[in-house]
Amino acid sequence: MKDKKGWRELPIGTIITEPGSAREFKTGDWRSQRPVWDANKCSSCLICFIYCPDNSIKIGDDSKMTGVDLDYCKGCGICANECPKKAIQMEIEKR
Ligand code: SF4
Ligand code: SF4
Q1: How many domains does the chain divide into?
Q2: What is the pLDDT of residues 42-88, one digit of tens each?
Q3: Which of 1, 5, 42, 65 has the fewest CB atoms within 10 Å of its CB?
Q4: Atom 6 in ligand 1: which residue has the minimum CA distance?
Q5: What are the pLDDT digits (tens) for 2-33?
Q6: Residue 40 is part of a domain; what is its CATH number?
Q7: Residue 12 counted as domain residue
Q8: How many CB atoms lie within 10 A of CB 58?
């Protein structure tokens, strides 16, 4: 109990102490469903990229979709809903 910090020593909440720190928090752990991408159906229209609220759609140097960054994807399913080619299916996350 003695080695616990008192309230005066705790960092103040909601303050970002350094830029780009969100990259360190792999929030994909929260996901209950995962998007499964079918490269054969995908036309790389990038509509999913525009809609993804988490910037989790990966794009290669040739401006084509290369997959989903599951370290950050929250499994919201928006990409699957918006894809005109039905190239993304949501599946229950297995852990
Ligand atoms: S919306 Fe569908 S077809 Fe378009 S890039 Fe994304 S997965 Fe591919
Ligand atoms: S499921 Fe949601 S967070 Fe994950 S890639 Fe699709 S739109 Fe982005």
Answers
A1: 1
A2: 999 999 999 999 999 999 999 999 999 999 999 999 999 999 999 99
A3: 1
A4: 48
A5: 688 888 888 888 888 888 888 888 889 889 99
A6: 3.30.70.20
A7: no
A8: 14
